[in-house]
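Take a specimen:
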Amino acid sequence: MEKRWVYNQEAPAEVVDNLAQSLKISPTLAAILCQRGICTYEEAKYFFRPSLADLHDPFLMKDMDHAVNRLNEALHAGERILVYGDYDVDGTTSVALMYGFLRNYTHQIDFYIPDRYKEGYGVSSQGIDYAAENGFNLIISLDCGIKSADKVAYAAEKGIDFIICDHHLPDDDIPQAVAVLDPKQVDCPYPYKELSGCGVGFKLIQAFCIQNDIEQEEIYKLLDLLVVSIASDIVPITGENRILAYYGLKHLNGPQPMRPGLEALKELAGITGEMDITSIVFGFAPRINAAGRMGDAKNSVRMLLAKTKEEAFKMADIINESNKARRDKDSDITREALQMIEDDDFLRSANSTVLFKDNWHKGVIGIVASRCIEKYYRPTIILTQSNGKASGSARSVHGFNVHNAIESCSDLLEQFGGHMYAAGLTLPVENIQAFRERFEQVVADTITEEQKIPQIEIDGKIELKQITRNFYNIVRQMEPFGPGNMRPMFVSECVYDTGSVRIVGDSHLKLRLTQDGHQSIDAIGFGLSDYYDKISKGIPFNVCYTIEENIYRGVITLQLRIKDIRMQ
């Protein structure tokens, strides 16, 4: 698939030169820092030397004092507390973090994860009924609750108070809870707005420790769970999130034993080296999510809270089996969905994809939508039947607001919600065809030609000879990488293979590149075997790539991970 190479905007030369001189680094690296808003020595010091001392005062968050006071009141009075969280990674890590901490201070505590299929997303009536029937006086909701004004009111009727810890955009109708902790509230003065749900829960625990003179080191033990949340929920790794992620990874990779549940996950995922954001996203997140997609998300919490390796591996094995089942469903439905597009003249050339089949598994349709976009790059909605309705997940392409497009069809829907790049929706089955036609028309009228082509954001153009160990070491100090601080992407022009190009696996290229006769460097390009014939003939080309370390038989070398190739 053709890709657009989009160069990030360059900072003024004077700013770049000043930063390069003050840090004693190359202008290329200084320019990348400036693109990320790091333009002065002080900003660079804050960036390269993250410090837990720079975490914001949790009491800056609106309602934090009310939340801590109500929590203290519940603990002192021996009230029953229910920790309530969503079924995804952010929700289950939040519950494990909050429940695992508070059970040190009370035995009158339990946790609750709603059933994805019977209760749906967020706070449910069934969950509140469970709390009432079992004598809970206080619910702490994590990664959900900000849009549950009606459920919070229902709980109040039953004498149950709510503390909400959420990070989603609120509606106009804010729940009448004892405390609503969400930095995205328009009147919340908290300086950092991009915390995960688990991050908001962490700030509540931090405030609780401050008010009760508990050493902050006690909460730093929870950073391993928090970094799993930050990585898996794809929140920006900037500001406070970057500090929390940095120390969370140090905790995962540190000399102390890893939390048994995470150690079990690491082994089952086949991760042998140090953990980073990528290994969490691809190794941990699918397995933790699979518990809620295919079975019981409470198993994820039990695994994360396990005190022994035996208990942890028992739960991790169950979760891993769920993940295998998820992969099978995902592959089967993706194959079927792509075939439906291939077999339909209209769908092949449409501006959008809307597919429905009544027996597709609801737990994987969001993944299937993303898989379809890999082949047909356009806004995509996959629908299945659930409780007599068509229920679906939408995914979008860079720059296109799929939530707004769905909103334009709201008269055909029963409910919908989400954000720019991902959304969920429910509609009567008989409205599917009308919705498909309307959605296609809305997309056709609003999507640009550029948005139909996947883009690669490029940080800078360099020569291969600039790639030294010292250059790479500075790039590594920019970790952890993720949204808002992606691994730098470079372009080198007029390179060619030294004669070692070969196809490895089914469709991957292994090369050794050189430029102007200077030293050569190894490179790998996944899924790029179509370029083999031209490259093997010695035709020069332009290449965009990231730089990484490759470990082979104990020898560490630098190599390029090629993202795209353009023949000259």
